[in-house]
Automatic annotation (TrEMBL):
Alphabetical UniProt keywords: Metal-binding, Zinc, Zinc-finger
Segments forming domain RING-type: 337-371
Domain SAM: 9-73
Family: Belongs to the CHFR family.
GO molecular function: zinc ion binding
Residue intervals of the FHA domain: 129-176, 234-278
Species assigned in the record: Blepharisma stoltei
Pfam family, one: FHA
Protein name: E3 ubiquitin-protein ligase CHFR
Keyword Protein biosynthesis in annotation: no
UniProt-listed CDD domains: FHA
Length: 382
């Protein structure tokens, strides 16, 4: 069974693998459906339940967890065969993909997908934007009690062509969704459900290789507890089958996330939870380091969730002629607000003249296009 890579196994090798897991009772169904290594790597919980008739949930969990180990084994072998290429891939795990690395994106879009700003879209230019509860001092206002007066900010770094997200010292934190395995380091914080964790200590062997780490739980039902994570890793969730179970956390999934160990490094990953796993940028009242944003990143501030997108042509401001720059006349040609794209234009900013709907522009004291201070809003009549 070890002569070929698992993703190249045949039906017989998959059956032998099931027997090694002491789940040989399901071999007949796997063989009847010709499940080979390629199909095994595409397996989901629904496939096991509906097609392969594995009724016991813990058996399905055992099969899926061991499939993940097979995938990690294949990846580890690939890294050993080409360590230079693997190191480069890890170093560039958050780099802009090669096919679009020359794009200059001096504008990004934040699309609200949860919270009180649901379905609102915000266009952020090179001048950046501040986000918080105070309507007088922020460009994007989130009127939630769990949002600080000035919560976070996004700024554009011209030399690196990056938008950078910084928590400006909020109380409840600014979070980024963990979309791919996240390398855990000392001091790093993350959230699962109502529970928040911090890497409180990292242990090394005499040769400087990390052997284990300690997680402190500082928020949630298990607050003030600590978890020791060895090289075997662990899963976290409400189900007692997890290596660490927090049954009282109503927002945590049965099997929420896992920590794995690979060649001296611990990684955090979400395993399909409902409320997802989130990295917290800084502790309570502490300013974070600037964090580069990528298209597709998901930001959580209070209960508001925002997705980072590239603007399409309809979202970009119209070209401003020299005469318009001098007169300050409106440069928006169509009738839709250039922030939400759903409501009609009904107010103009004074003195710049850029037009929006009153709902969107009331959330900012600066014009979203030119960033000039808005002294007044002029009602438009058609």
């Amino acid at each position: 069974m070890e002569s070929r890579k698992p993703d190249a196994w045949g039906v017989k090798e998959v059956s032998e693998w099931l027997s090694s897991l002491e789940l040989g009772q399901y071999k007949q169904k796997f063989e009847a459906l010709s499940i080979d290594g390629m199909l095994l790597f595409e397996m989901t919980d629904q496939d096991l339940l509906n097609d392969l008739e594995v009724p016991v949930r813990l058996h399905r969990f055992k099969i899926l967890e061991n499939i993940k180990k097979l995938k990690e084994h294949c990846l580890s072998n690939q890294r050993q065969q080409d360590p230079e290429d693997s190191s480069q891939q890890q170093a560039n795990s958050r780099a802009i993909p090669a096919e679009i690395e020359e794009i200059k994106w001096e504008m990004l879009v934040l699309k609200a997908v949860e919270g009180q700003l649901l379905n609102n879209t915000f266009l952020i230019g090179a001048e950046g934007a501040s986000i918080g509860r105070n309507s007088a001092s922020n460009d994007i206002v989130i009127g939630e009690s769990f949002v600080s007066r000035k919560h976070c900010e996004i700024r554009f770094n011209q030399p690196t062509n990056q938008f950078l997200l910084t928590d400006t010292g909020s109380t409840t934190g600014t979070f980024l969704m963990v979309r791919q395995p996240l390398r855990l380091e000392l001091g790093m914080m993350f959230q699962m459900g109502l529970s928040e964790f911090k890497v409180n200590n990292v242990r090394y062997n005499p040769y400087g290789k990390i052997t284990s780490l300690e997680l402190a739980i500082y928020e949630g039902p298990a607050r003030q507890n600590a978890i020791n994570v060895s090289a075997e890793g662990l899963t976290i969730g409400r189900d007692i089958a997890n290596a660490y179970c927090i049954r009282e956390d109503s927002q945590m999934s049965s099997f929420h996330g896992k920590i794995t160990y690979d060649n001296g490094t611990f990684y955090l990953a979400d395993i399909g939870s409902t409320n997802r796993t989130w990295r917290r940028l800084s502790g309570e009242g502490q300013k974070s380091e600037p964090y580069p944003l990528l298209v597709g990143d998901v930001i959580k501030i209070g209960s508001t969730v925002l997705v980072v997108q590239l603007p399409d042509s309809s979202q970009l401001p119209s070209v401003i002629s020299s005469s318009e720059k001098e007169t300050g006349e409106s440069v928006v040609d169509d009738a839709a607000c250039k922030i939400c794209f759903t409501r009609e234009l009904n107010v103009a900013c004074y003195p710049c003249g850029h037009m929006f709907c009153d709902f969107c522009v009331s959330k900012s004291h600066n014009c979203p296009i030119c960033r000039k201070y808005v002294q007044d809003l002029v009602k438009l009549y058609k």
